[in-house]
Amino acid sequence: MSLQATMAAAFVGIGVLVALYAERRVPLPSLAELRANIWEADGYLASLEARKDSLLYRLRVWLDRAGLGRLHVMEFLGLSIAAATVSFLVAVLVFGGYLLSLELGLAAGFGPTVYVLAVRRGREEAIEEQLDRALSILINSMQGTGRNLRSALVDLVSEEQDGGGSRLRAVLPAPLGPELAWLVRRLAATSDTLEEALADSARSLSHPAFDMFVSAVHSSQGGQVVGLLKQVRSHLHERKALRGSVRASFSLVVSQVYILALMPLGLLAMWRILSPEAAHIVFGTTLGQLVVVFILAYSWLGVALVSRESRPENLIKGVRM
Q1: DSSP string spanning 134-187?
Q2: Is the N or the C terminus of the chain less surrounded, counting Cβ atoms within 10 Å?
Q3: Tell me, what's the pLDDT at 135?
Q4: Considering its fold, how many domains does the chain have in total?
């Protein structure tokens, strides 16, 4: 079926629905009923997110680890579906083959997923960098003044005037700084122990380096806390040095793999533009589309495998957090 026939069928279907609504053969919900149905559906989805064995809950945790707590799970799924649909339609207009367009649409549907992975990786590295600075501040404060860890945490925030009152502002930027400021405010305003507040912060940040910091605080006794914090900082320095070395070694290889994976798609587009008659053999026949789909899938599979295996986190597993 051609694109024109598909669009015509879609318009006919829309016209039939409009006609049925006009004749009231299909009941048209009122605005109040529509709002009630939306609230009911939203409540049902919220209940699914609360179930720890559901896929929506796992997606919620995954988005939270990337620092995208404001992005709703259904919004993320909607963006993925929209990206796949728009890319499919554009590919049909450019290439004309449904099999190839379907593959390109599915690949584009993973665009939001790739974005979340990139944001999560950047957030995790930022937390490690800021935790290193926070540990240095805490160690210097505890060694210089003899204070305990709970008192030394005050050095991670500064007090500033806000209208008629004052509020605490994090010395470090996001994502770690605001969490530490919240931790200090909680310790000052409640009777919670330091271990309880740190455990809640660890669940909020969901980062192995911060979990190691919390474990060091929980297992410390007396004057051992400074020594354990120094060990945590030493681990962070080792991981940072190894990550830089790994990226310097594999950056050229990864960039070459990306270029090689994009070359078939660029060549197909040029072929489509320069020689439409010959390109019809590829884009207008089922066998030709299957060959192109296989070539692109093989190329993207190679990109996925190389990208995964060349991640610094996978290559420095010997350094335990």
Answers
A1: HHHHHHHHHHHH---HHHHGGGGEEEEEETTEEEEEESS-TTHHHHHHHHHHHH
A2: N
A3: 92
A4: 3
What type of residue sits at position 42? Answer: D
Residues 249 and 316 in one domain: yes
Answer with the one of 219, 235, 254 that is the final residue of a domain.
219
* C-alpha dist (Å) from residue 84 to 11, 78, 102, 243: 21, 10, 8, 34
Q: What is the pLDDT of residue 119?
A: 92
Phi and psi, residue 26, nearest 5°: -110, 120
In this structure, the answer to whether residues 214 and 238 fall within a common structural domain is no
Same domain, 230 and 320: yes
Structural domain boundaries, residue 86: 49-109
pLDDT of residue 166: 58
pLDDT at 65: 85
Identify the CA nearest to 258 among candidates 310, 314, 315.
310
The pTM of this model reads: 0.72
The alpha carbon of residue 283 and the mean position of all alpha carbons in its chain are separated, in whole angstroms, by: 35
Q: Before 178, cis peptide (omega within 30)?
A: no
Shared domain for 210 and 149, answered yes or no, is yes
Q: How many helices (H) and strands (E) does the chain have?
A: 14, 2
At 160-201, the pLDDT tens digits run: 655 555 565 667 788 888 888 888 888 888 888 888 999 999
Give me the amino acid identity at 112: P
Q: Confirm whether 126 is domain-assigned.
A: no
